[in-house]
Design a protein that fits this description.
The complex is a heterodimer.
Chain A: E1 3-12, E2 24-34, E3 39-43, H1 50-58, E4 65-70, E5 73-74, E6 85-88, H2 100-109, H3 119-132, H4 148-160, E7 166-170, H5 178-195, E8 198-203, H6 206-212, E9 215-220, E10 223-228, H7 230-235, H8 240-245, E11 252-259, E12 262-265, E13 268-272, E14 279-285, E15 290-292, E16 298-308, E17 311-317, E18 326-331, E19 342-347, E20 352-356, E21 362-363, H9 367-381, H10 395-409, H11 411-421, H12 424-440
Parallel strand pairs in A: 3-8, 3-9, 6-7, 7-8
Antiparallel strand pairs in A: 1-2, 1-4, 4-5, 9-10, 11-12, 11-14, 12-13, 14-20, 15-19, 16-17, 16-19, 17-18, 20-21
Chain B: H1 2-37, H2 43-47, H3 57-64, H4 68-99, H5 104-112, H6 119-130, E1 132-135, E2 138-142, H7 144-151, H8 166-195, H9 198-206, H10 211-239, H11 243-249, H12 265-275, H13 278-306
Antiparallel strand pairs in B: 1-2
Helix pairs in contact in B: 1-13, 3-13, 4-8, 4-10, 6-11, 8-10, 10-13, 12-13
Classes of the chains: A alpha+beta, B mainly alpha.
Chain lengths: 462, 309
């Protein structure tokens, strides 16, 4: 079942009556088209609205505005039980007083009218679901007598037994220990492949999302930052946030500048970027992007070496680094070449990303332009799955959530000010919103929209 | 050495509590046992130097009192009827309270009022509400309940006044006791409800369970420890019912002309104390204790099978 989310927005009203402006925009104009039978990972730091998005798809939370389609059906105002979804909660929410079998049977026993199954059919279905997730031998146990991983599988069986059109998983692995997490994520992948049910799962763990998803959706403060195949997003991040969020060890970020075709970190010109205009930039370098070289262009002070068997990780510092330490992964054979107090690196151009300092958006240079264009073309050729949206980095939305946070912290003076300004503000907000919505609606059907040049990343249909 | 010293300190700190417990709890229990088995025991006589034989005569006297079976029957009847009714009502009210947002606090306060009001005072209010004074066959003055009945076209009922039937008396008593027992039960169940993880309800909603099924398959099992607690304490309280009857019918424990008709076990014990038969009163208290103990054991046994912890 294809799932389409159009302009999905969720605003939680202020809980404090004295500060009506302290509303929280959890999800902001979320546009996504999820193809049938794929596994999608919603990825982002906590509070980015990914779970809210999931709960809106499930129907447990009503969107403030926007629409949700399953296939061709508009399910936006449909109750959860009528949407045909299976939902697995973060802590499973298995009914503790029922056995595993009763838990799995529960959704079937709720079916009414012509959908009602006979007892034998119910048992057969429950057994099939149990078999799929390999928990047949625990059918008569209580959830408390199972391990975390087994409980997880029971929860998945309970979600699958009613043959949902869409399977939703909320942080499915966060309650498991490291070993089980690896096992279970493969299991989820296998189950998804076996059943071919469109599956959406939420996680804050980028490794988890990258390893099993067909596509990942990176979110920040309720806004989509980037969508695509995991490896593609990793190789071709659209902005600094995405670059920083994906990858372990994390990307190394430096303050730098581009001046007459050269990329500078501090006083050192580390890379030729002939076609880039002069500007202040952030430089992101993946740990695997360093080449040890005695005549290297980037000089760092060595503070330690982590030996990890096949690879070694050189821990060093540079005064322009925004991270406390720089981690560079190089082959263990080169261990002998690391000596003395400083180390010099050359950089692999494909592993170096430049971001404009103000917008934090990606600035493409050299061969990266070609790579980026090939990825865009590839996605378009696949029938383009993700609806392009106006601006991958809507600064406005960002600012809105930030002002909200600021207003919550304003304290006494803010409250006094609020006494005078209170009545005007909400009215103004209300007036603006419908207008903005109307303006967007005609664009719904438009296949492509004229975008600003730097936002070409999402503008794949062109 | 140090350890011993500290232990002394600990005992010293515990001393006031232990002393109070010994004087007001342990000694009365032991003394009750003693009095129950001293035949024909009387405190004054003992102070005068009399001695009593040891045996079961007090228990035999208790059973032979002609009002004893009435008292025991009333106690059992009131308990068996009021505990299930009040528990179910409390459960429904708690669930309803938990599902509303506006006015929740106000309703909570209203339902909690009986708990903090003197039960004798409430009893007198009930007396006024249900009363009816007749002259010949013509009612002279009637309470609000009878007014309501008449407003709906019924006839005024003699609930509690001279000549009223025991059945009518019992109806009033049951209403009073149930109403009086509600607040504590609602409080406990509401607390339990608020402790139930909301995700179970979300899961049930996604699974398409009807409200009825959610109530029986999720709410009740989840609340079962609280329900068990409320039922067990309800039975214990029910067997000790006394003040409600005093409140509505006064010391005579019955309507005018029916003295003692509504007496209970605790009332029986008080009466024997007033008569000066402390030995017999103690024996009756032990019998009541045995009944409560047995019922509680049964309750615990049943709840072990039915309650999910």
């Amino acid at each position: 079942m294809k799932v389409v989310l159009q302009h999905l927005t969720k605003i939680f009203p202020s809980r404090n009556k004295k500060e009506p402006n302290a509303e929280v925009v959890a999800v902001n104009d979320f546009n996504l088209e999820i193809p049938d039978g794929k596994l999608i990972g919603l990825l982002g730091p906590s509070g980015c609205g990914k779970s809210t998005t999931l709960f809106m798809i499930s129907g447990l939370q009503a969107p403030t505005s926007g629409q949700i389609f399953f296939g061709e059906d508009d399910v936006t105002s449909l109750a959860p039980e009528n949407r045909g979804i299976g939902l697995v909660f973060q802590n499973y929410a298995l009914y503790p007083h029922m056995t595993v079998q009763q838990n799995i049977l529960f959704p079937l026993q709720n079916l009414k009218g012509e959908n009602r199954l006979s007892k034998e059919e119910m048992l057969t279905r429950a057994n099939e679901a149990a078999k799929l997730v390999k928990i047949e031998e625990f059918m008569n146990r209580k959830p408390s007598e199972l391990s975390g991983g087994q409980q997880q599988r029971v929860a998945i069986a309970r979600a699958l037994v009613k043959m949902p059109r869409v399977l939703l998983l909320d942080e499915p692995l966060s309650n498991l220990d490291a070993r089980l997490r690896l096992q279970t994520r493969e299991e989820i992948r296998r189950i998804q492949k076996d059943t071919k049910i469109t599956t959406i799962f939420v996680t804050h763990d980028q490794e988890e999302a990258m390893s099993i998803s067909d596509y990942i959706v990176v979110m920040k403060l309720g806004v989509i930052m980037q969508t695509g195949k995991p490896q593609r997003v990793y190789d071709d991040p659209a902005n600094l946030f995405v670059a920083k969020f994906l990858g372990t060890p994390p990307i190394n970020v430096f303050a730098g500048k581009v001046e007459s075709g050269k990329l500078y970190i501090g006083e050192e010109a580390v890379l030729d970027v002939a076609d880039v205009e002069d500007q202040e930039v952030y430089v992101g370098i993946r740990p695997e992007g360093f080449i040890l070289n005695k005549k290297g262009k980037l000089t760092c002070a060595v503070s330690g070496i982590d030996v990890m068997g096949r690879d070694i990780s050189v821990v060093s510092t540079n005064e322009n680094s925004l991270n406390p330490v720089i981690r560079s992964i190089i082959s263990a054979d080169e261990l002998a070449n690391v000596s003395g107090e400083t180390v010099k690196f050359n950089l692999k151009p494909a592993k170096v990303y430049i971001f404009n300092k103000e917008t934090e958006n990606r600035v493409y240079f050299g061969e990266q332009v070609a790579l980026h264009e090939s990825i865009v073309a590839e996605m378009a050729a696949e029938g383009q799955i993700f609806t392009p949206h106006e601006d991958p980095l809507p600064r406005e939305a960002d600012d809105k959530t930030q002002t909200v946070a600021v207003e919550q912290k304003k304290g006494f003076i803010g409250k006094v000010k609020g006494l005078f300004g209170r009545k005007k503000k909400p009215v103004a907000a209300e007036e603006q919103e419908p207008a903005a919505e109307e303006a967007e609606k005609p664009q719904d059907e438009a296949v492509a929209e004229p975008d600003e040049p730097q936002t070409a990343e999402e503008d794949v249909k062109e | 050495m140090d350890k011993k010293k500290n232990q002394w300190k600990a005992w010293l700190y515990l001393l006031p509590a232990i002393a109070i417990l010994l004087i007001f709890t342990v000694w009365p229990i032991i003394n009750t046992l003693r009095m129950a088995f001293l035949e024909g025991y009387n405190g004054l006589a003992e102070a005068g130097g009399a001695s009593f034989g040891f045996g079961f005569a007090n228990f035999v006297s208790v059973v032979n009192y002609n009002k004893f079976l009435t008292c025991l029957g009333n106690t059992l009847l009131l308990t068996v009827i009021t505990v299930p009714i009040s528990t179910m009502l409390a459960l429904l009210i708690a669930v309803a309270l938990n599902s509303i947002k506006p006015l929740k606090k106000i309703f909570q306060t209203i339902f909690f009022l009986p708990y903090v009001t003197n039960s004798i005072a409430i009893g007198m209010v009930f007396m006024a509400m249900f009363h009816m004074v007749t002259l010949g066959s013509q009612p002279l003055s009637i309470g609000i309940i009878n007014s309501i009945i008449e407003a709906f076209g019924g006839h005024a009922v003699n609930w509690i006044d001279a000549g009223s039937t025991t059945f009518n008396n019992m109806v009033v008593l049951i209403i009073y006791i149930v109403w009086n027992a509600l607040p504590f039960k609602i409080l406990v169940l509401l607390g339990g409800l608020q402790g139930v993880n909301k995700q179970y309800y979300d899961a049930a909603k996604v699974d398409g369970a009807s409200r009825w099924r959610i109530f029986w398959r999720i709410t009740v099992p989840m609340l079962s420890p609280m329900i068990a607690y409320v039922v067990i304490t309800g039975f214990i309280g029910g067997f000790k019912e006394y003040t409600s009857i005093v409140g509505i019918f006064g010391d005579s424990m019955g309507p005018i002309g029916g003295d003692g008709n509504l007496n209970t076990m605790v009332g029986f014990i008080y009466d024997r104390l007033e008569d000066g038969f402390q030995g017999i009163a103690s024996a009756a208290a032990l019998i009541l204790f045995a009944i409560i103990f047995a019922v509680t054991i049964i309750n615990l046994y049943v709840s072990k099978k039915k309650v999910h912890y």
